[in-house]
Amino acid sequence: MSTTDLVDYDEAVARFDPVIGIEVHVELGTASKMFDGAPTEFGAEPNTQVTPVSLGLPGSLPVLNRTAVESAIKIGLALNCEIAELCRFARKNYFYPDVPKNFQTSQYDEPIAHDGWIDIELEDGTVVRVEIERAHMEEDAGKNTHVGGATGRIHGAEYSLVDYNRAGIPLVEIVTRPITGVGDRAPEVARAYVQTLRDIFRGLGVSEARMERGNVRADVNVSLRPTPESPLGTRTETKNVNSFRSVERAVRYEISRQAAILDAGRTVTQETRHWHEDTGITTAGRVKSDAEDYRYFPEPDLVPVAPSRAWVEEIRATLPEAPVARRRRLQGEWGYADAEMRDVVNAGAIELIEATVAAGAVPAAARKWWMGELARTSNTEGVELADLPVTPEQIAQLQGLVDSGRINDKLARQVLAGVLAGEGSPEEVVASRGLEVVSDDGALLAAVDEALAAQPDIAAKVRAGNLGPVGAIIGAVMKATRGQADAGRVRELVLERINQG
Amino acid sequence: MAGRHVAGSEDPPGGSTTPAAEAATATRDLTRMSADELSRALRAGEVTSVMVTQAHLDRIAAVDGAVHAFLHVAAEEALATARDVDARRAAGEELHPLAGVPIAVKDVVVTKGLPTTAGSRILEGWVPPYDATLVERLKAAGMPILGKTNMDEFAMGSSTEHSAYGNTHNPWDLDRIPGGSGGGSAAAVAAYEAPLAIGTDTGGSIRQPGAVTGTVGVKPTYGGVSRYGLIALASSLDQAGPVTRTVLDSALLHEVIGGHDRRDSTSLPEPLPDLVGAARLGSSGDLTGVRVGVVHELNGDGYQPGVRARFEESLELLRGAGAEVVEVSCPHFEYALAAYYLILPSEASSNLAKFDGMRFGLRVVPTDGPATAERVMGATRGAGFGDEVKRRIILGTYALSAGYYDAYYGSAQKVRTLIQRDFEAAFEQADVLVSPTAPTTAFKLGEKLDDPLAMYLNDVATIPANLAGVPGMSVPNGVSDDGLPVGFQILAPARADDRLYRVGAALEALLERGWGAPLLSRAPELPTAPLTEGTAR
User: Is position B350 annotated as part of the catalytic site?
Assistant: First the structure.
């Protein structure tokens, strides 16, 4: 691969005005596929989640999934779009082995949702309004695996395998209008936009929206122009950028790369580009001006989609609030500082904390657990917070045990370790590991008496009014009870005993 | 073709027929009976389904070597169904009226476990893993499936000469075509190889074969019979329907296969009208108050004199039965053929894209270079599709291309709307519209094979119904000067299929009163030409 000239990012954005556009595909979390009853379970054995329809067998016909349409309408409404009163599917014709019918059934010139906007918030609190051109429904393709080549790409492979489990999974594609006027913050805006969409998908419950499973995939368009008044420059489209960080990096890289081309007096080629996660660069794919002719025409096997206004309003009434508004409301309710809230958002912990609070924990405690012990575990294990084997309800229960004095903070961490190790609920771990604070005064008094008897001189000093050395007695008791005593109660008992004596 | 076989005769299971009943039916040829008559005989216990099914298998064995209506005969499976129905009937189970009456199915309809080729090499050897909805309904009714019938490849043609598996011969004259694309189903019914058959009609493929073989063929309202499991030619035009020897039999079969199917998005939600009732009502021969519209544009130049003479005579009969005959004009029908030959190839070019050697059917791996997916697809399609299919794929691909779409596909869709409006206006003036079904009687095999336009003109009268989605029927109404059968086409508004049956049954009854016997009784006896194994001629 030849080395590519790059202009330092700050210089590039000082001389050029970047314009970006983003296409996001989200896989809907419906139980069955877009046009047939095949299940959509992730990670199943290849070609087991299929029917004659998703294999494109002769004679099979599509039937539209109502839940998928409802999800698309939800997404459209959450993005402040108009919902079409009548729209159709089209056939996008092209030959490729992962497309079972050799055409993809997709909306083309009649999207279900169009002309919307969404406000996104950058890390410093700046709000940017992104205009949405359209959101349309389509079906996913299958997945090719190229075997025998060095790169895993088709070039050089000996043969290819096709898995049609993914073929026909419902997708919604959301296309922005060109995002202008954000200058050097373009990469950050791109990232925040995709992140906001992810939050919206989760908030709507239309998708698990897990980036690492490819539930959400972004194509980023970047172009440069000399000044904000100049006409739009030639754009490139970088395909399949599949993490928030990569979205930001890919935009940044393209700005630096295109600036170098323009500086050299050459022109940017309109093309699709591949993103390389490992090296952080993009490379040329196919040239767009050579565009394939997809021979779109209205899908004759489906009737037009005509969502009634009553249904649309019914769906609108169930919509959760927008992420930015919701974030502000929750921050107020929870009393978190700006920096604290930002960390919570960036960690993807809003829903977890919300559920923990709903299960009875106070907001400060919920934050302490999720952003402390659990965030550390998530980092060291390399899994997302939400994927840790512990539920918000369990965290609330754990905090409840601390609040009632049945365990102390130190024990609570051991209990949490037990829960994460799959030993059951906090209550069950406390019971099975025998971690409960010793609150039986009889047992404690025996330990206190033993400690006082072992250190008579300290007992005498205390009795004489010098409370300083009492810590040594308490320490001895705690040691004897292996930390399971409540230190406050031990202190009370020690003083009681001495004063009695 | 491989897998073509007929089981030897078997002894029917005893118990369900009386010796007296057997004696009564022994003089009857079971293959000459209508489905309605067979239904009555089965219910009366005079015959068993095994007897009926075996009689038809024997007939196939005797004459299909000459007719070649079948691509695959499913003797074992048909007899198994027959035995099951007989056992259930003997056990006193309540059965569908057509239970035990055998049927032939056009090879464009997928049948679980039975080879399905759509007349194409590209599907040679493919055995579908599922049943079409209409096949499920035939099975649920207890109807033994005798086999799969020959057709033009992917239903593209009007003569069945475009089958990859040889010609089907018209039972009236073996040197002539049986019509198409459903020549196999029409010939099977005309040759008494099956009392009933399923056809599909995209531009006339049920009605035109019906006309040239002297059988009844019905194209239901679009959406009236599920398309799930029909190998699609043109999705917005395709419709499956009955092929029979009597109008009443078509109504009986139509009621089995019709009605809503949630697996077909274009399936009509409402229940079918009472078709059998309409056929019985019509058979009285009374059409008082019925307005019959003669379509001016479908009766003139280009129609054979004998065809026009029979048409005029039939109109006289309808007048005599009390119908009011009026002339209607459908000015845009003139453009129907042109619009059809843009819409059909466009949809077909996309529907046929899935035949690529990747998942099922023929797979040809090129040996002269790398076997990339694209080259395997190209080699498979090059070897698997016949010339007519390639011609239409090329036409359709061109018509849908960027820059041509509006001029071709877009304009054709506008013509379609105009034709629909012509129908709406005409149905203001008439309850049904009528015309000759086909402009000529059956032509000789090979006569038009090199002239696609002449071939396409066969469907000039049948195509408008497909473009508008309205139902149509062809009823045999005599023979032309050449002694070959002609058909009378009846068209009704969408969802009013019952009108076809009322008028069709009336015309049939009036004609047969005059003839003293069904038209098919005039067809010559067929030579016995046993089935042979191996590839068809």
Answer: no
Catalogue all structural domains in chain A, each as residue range(s) with its CATH number: 9-312 (no CATH), 321-433 (no CATH), 441-500 (1.10.10)
CA–CA distance, A383 with A380 (Å, rounded to integer): 8
Chain A hits for B222, CB-CB cut-off 8 Å, are none
Place of tokens 């209506």: B69
Whether the Cβ atoms of residue A10 and residue A256 lie closer than 8 Å to each other: no
**Cis status, amide bond into B350, omega within 30 of 0:** no
Q: How far apart are CA B129 and CA A59, in angstroms?
A: 11
Q: Which residue has the higher pLDDT, B239 or A345?
A: B239
Across the interface, whether the CB atoms of A100 and B354 are under 8 A apart is answered yes
Query: Strands across the sheet with B70-73, in order?
Result: B70-73, B145-149, B103-106, B196-200, B240-244, B216-219, B472-479, B485-491, B432-436, B291-295, B324-328
> pLDDT (tens digit, 9 = 90+) per residue, B10-35?
444 444 455 555 555 556 799 999 99
Report helix angle B133-140 to B247-257, nearest 10.
110
Q: What b/e string do you get for A160-190 counting C-beta neighbours within 10 Å, with b at 16 or more? A: bebbbbbbbbbbbbbbbeebbebeebbbbbb
Between the two ends of chain A, the Cα-to-Cα distance in Å is: 86
Give SS3 for B98.
coil
Residues A57, B359: C-beta atoms closer than 8 Å? yes
For the CA atoms of B110, A50, A106, A285, the dihedral, rounded to the nearest 10 degrees, stands at -120
Q: Which pLDDT tens digit goes with each residue over B118-154?
A: 999 999 999 999 999 999 999 999 999 999 999 999 9
Q: What is the sign of the dihedral through the CA atoms of B451, B457, B463 and B467?
A: positive
Q: Which residues pair with B73 in a beta bridge?
A: B147
C-alpha to C-alpha distance for A347 and A187, rounded to whole angstroms: 19
Q: Which helix (H) or strand (E) holds A441?
A: helix A441-454
Longest dimension (CA), chain B: 74
ipTM above 0.90 for this complex? yes
Beta strands in B386-505 (DSSP E): 432-436, 472-479, 485-491
The whole-angstrom separation of Cα A418 and Cα A433 is 8
Q: Does domain B30-334+416-518 have CATH number 3.90.1300.10?
A: yes
Count, residues in chain A: 501
Residue whose C-alpha is closest to residue B182's, from B217, B147, B214: B217
Residues with Cβ within 8 Å of A302's Cβ and at least 6 positions away in sequence, in order, are: A35, A62, A64, A88, A89, A105, B265, B266
Q: And the tokens for A91? A: 């056939």
- DSSP strands (E only) in A40-89: 82-83
Structure tokens at A195: 């992140």
Tally Cβ neighbours within 10 Å of residue A155. 9
- Which stretch of DSSP H or E encloses residue B218? strand B216-219
Burial of B60 (0-12, 13-18, 19+ CB in 10 A): buried
Q: Which helix (H) or strand (E) holds A352?
A: helix A350-358
| CA dihedral for B460, B464, B466, B472, sign (positive or negative) | negative
Residue B458 confidence (pLDDT): 86
| Closest C-alpha to B191, from B59, B28, B9, B57 | B59
Residue A7 in contact with residue A259, Cβ under 8 Å? yes
User: Tokens standing for B484?
Assistant: 């070959």
CB distance A43 to A177 below 8 Å:
no
B interface toward A at CB cutoff 8 Å? 109-110, 116, 118, 123, 126, 128-130, 132, 227-232, 234-236, 262-266, 346-347, 349-350, 353-356, 358-360, 373-374, 377, 397, 400-402, 405, 409
- The pair of structure tokens assigned to A417 is 């370790």
Predicted local confidence at residue A436, as pLDDT: 75
Around Cβ A457, how many Cβ atoms within 10 Å?
Answer: 8
CA distance B299 to chain A (A): 32
Name, in order, each residue with C-beta under 8 angstroms of B282's C-beta and a sequence gap of 6 or more.
Answer: B247, B501, B502, B503, B504, B505, B506, B509
